[in-house]
Amino acid sequence: MTERVLIKDLAAREDGLVRVSGWVEKVRDQRYVQFVVLRDESGAVQLVNGGVLREPDPENPRSDILVPRTTTISELTHGTFITVTGELQHNERVKLGGVEIQIETIDVVAAALPDNPVADDSNIDVRLDWRFLDLRRPEQNLVFRVQTTFLHALRQVWVDRGFIEIQTPKLMASASESRAELFEVEYFEGKAFLAQSPQFFKQMAQAAGFGGIFEVGPAFRADPSFTSRHATEFTSVDAEMSWIDSHEDVMELHEELMVAGLTAVKEKHGEEIKKFFNVELEVPARPFPRIPLAEAKEIVKAEGYEVPRADADMDPEGERRISAHVKKKYGHDFVFLTDYDASIRPFYHMRHADNPQLTNSYDLIYNGTEISTGAQREHRIDVLEAQAVEKGMDPKELGFYLDFFRYGVPTHGGFGMGLNRVLMLMLKQSSIRETTYLFRGPNRLLP
Amino acid sequence: MTERVLIKDLAAREDGLVRVSGWVEKVRDQRYVQFVVLRDESGAVQLVNGGVLREPDPENPRSDILVPRTTTISELTHGTFITVTGELQHNERVKLGGVEIQIETIDVVAAALPDNPVADDSNIDVRLDWRFLDLRRPEQNLVFRVQTTFLHALRQVWVDRGFIEIQTPKLMASASESRAELFEVEYFEGKAFLAQSPQFFKQMAQAAGFGGIFEVGPAFRADPSFTSRHATEFTSVDAEMSWIDSHEDVMELHEELMVAGLTAVKEKHGEEIKKFFNVELEVPARPFPRIPLAEAKEIVKAEGYEVPRADADMDPEGERRISAHVKKKYGHDFVFLTDYDASIRPFYHMRHADNPQLTNSYDLIYNGTEISTGAQREHRIDVLEAQAVEKGMDPKELGFYLDFFRYGVPTHGGFGMGLNRVLMLMLKQSSIRETTYLFRGPNRLLP
């Protein structure tokens, strides 16, 4: 049999016999001709069954082939997977890619049920119930091709820099962040917890002398909220590096990664992103703007928005406003908010040498929403322990983590970034549900 | 300040001022000279403090610098992280890399406690208790650099083939493999389970028309066993692809990946692997030998070993023997055992068209141990459902999975492979505990 050809490669081929495989997107059954729109992972093409006979014709020697094929095509349901061989013909009048295929044979691999549980106007919950059908839409497929390209570009940067890829355990004996959002696992005769982040374990790699490390893996938060940017399970992109002077070194790595990722995505998918999402992807210039958090709050206040929070933190509306300000002033989609107040940062963030109220930390805001938190970590065991106690933590429970610092550790820092959020903001989607393969929330565990 | 130089790059530099950072591996305190062996993520180098003065000497203007430095060096504990500036000098008599550094300044970043909980002869449990110290050994560091290179090479193959990277959820509403080895999670008001494999979700990508997909992520098995090759959490390397004719297509992809991974590892780390593990890495020739399971059992029987199992399966000793046979006969480290009996395969493996007793499946054996199971999947909903019922499963519980097949699906197949096992066998290690960043077992959740 001839080799399968991807639909995107048809236009560049010469006319002649081809084999294509995919699923039926549309059937148009006309009086003397039948059309099928076939889609595969790379695109869509029009198949044609010409010279249609509705009944066997004793005068026509091809009638016994044509009539069954006619019937088969009429009965093709939306979503049925088929393999078709036929004559590829270039034809400028065919809007769909300028080619069509005159059907010779059809092999039905798996017929779809005739009902279609998802319609174009189905709400997000129905679409998530039938995520595998929802993902057939070309714009959804594009999301995950973008994800692939983005991650591969990030990993190339890390590999070029000599970073080590680690896979940290997701089963832990205690909390890595806050006890409040912890999932508990029955672990043989005892209990385990799901990692809320690889924080402790990527710092362990620093004490182990690994230098730079990275990980892309799941993180779990028993967060009961239902916003567009929270999930109970999400993909965390993490890096950590040794021998930094401050969080500035982390921000420089972070910039380099975002530029590499967006450059690769724009190059490979820029046109499709424009077509499907009407987004003109921009590769950000370096350095990204940096604004201390306190100053950012002053800026949005001067522009009429006072952040309504009791603590020192920014809120989502404040992030949107400072992002809009930066876009207007510097034409930049990204902004690092830096030097967060110690009261709103975890105990392991290092504080300024000259002002213990402030931390060597940042949040990265992209198109109005926070995608990442980074920091220099406190590596001095006495300071670290004091900061943990100050936050009301029990150093005994942190025992294994604090041990990492007792036998020597370099200065270090890193960041964690929510992949699904990055994709949501890159492609200007309304929710991470659109940019997560299978979303998990407080009331969603299926499919 | 001068830029930090990685120790591996010193030999290629000209003599002159350099800055290095790492941890103290050894201090030799002699009468008139002090030596420090400093290690970083790239190698080790000798630091020298010559012209040592034990007491301030009013005649010597450098004495007040030299004496404190002398004290500092004497007090350096093993594992202390330091930054040193000094004069790089090439010196053929220095065994360690042919260079040494005359110390100018020492900055102690974090001093290590003087006790060393891990000794060279500590057993594996002590080493795992102090994994971050254990990982400082250069051979352990090498394991994870090999992992990085191996995975990057695999992903390059997938990206070049147009495969999509997915991250499937690890929180599930039901079992994906067997109910016996399932971890239960408290999920808000209800229960969730940890994914034993991404099996169902990577098949979902097939129904979604994604074509080829891959994932590298954690998998969880509540397996109470304590062998050298089992863990409760491990890194699974998974791929799945559409429009295959049989499991042969999956094996071809699998071969291509292993060859690419091993080629990259040999090229980048072959010499170090030889040095630290005394292993001469071999890039396997294609095609890998393929032996139907029944035939493999005949071969080991003819060579004197009757597999002592009630079912049709191979056992670990049988795997070792067939692997030794293949090595001897074909000089090959790999062998595909194919066509497993349906009774010992999951319900979703496709069976031979002409013999429903056998499946379109394989195990890949590497240096004597199974590293992977692959198969063509059954895509016909009626056959799939019947096979599930035959295995005593409740199709209702499989509801969401079976739905994937009701709305059309291409022929497809794939494999799952245990990354830690591959590394164990590649580097001829005795246990996956040596090739897992942080091992998890029935009685190990720490650190």
Automatic annotation (TrEMBL), chains A, B:
InterPro entries: Aa-tRNA-synt_II, aa-tRNA-synth_II, aa-tRNA-synth_II/BPL/LPL, Asp-tRNA_synthase_2, Asp/Asn-tRNA-synth_IIb, NA-bd_OB-fold, NA-bd_OB_tRNA. HAMAP family: Asp_tRNA_synth_type2. One of its GO terms (biological process) is aspartyl-tRNA aminoacylation. NCBIfam families: PRK05159.1. ATP binds at residues 370, 418-421. PANTHER family: ASPARTATE--TRNA LIGASE, CYTOPLASMIC, ASPARTYL-TRNA SYNTHETASE. Belongs to the class-II aminoacyl-tRNA synthetase family. Type 2 subfamily. One of its GO terms (cellular component) is cytosol. Its EC number is 6.1.1.12. Catalyzes the attachment of L-aspartate to tRNA(Asp) in a two-step reaction: L-aspartate is first activated by ATP to form Asp-AMP and then transferred to the acceptor end of tRNA(Asp). PROSITE patterns: AA_TRNA_LIGASE_II. Residues 199-202 are annotated as: Aspartate. It catalyses: tRNA(Asp) + L-aspartate + ATP = L-aspartyl-tRNA(Asp) + AMP + diphosphate. This is Aspartate--tRNA ligase. L-aspartate binds at residues 177, 221, 373, 377.
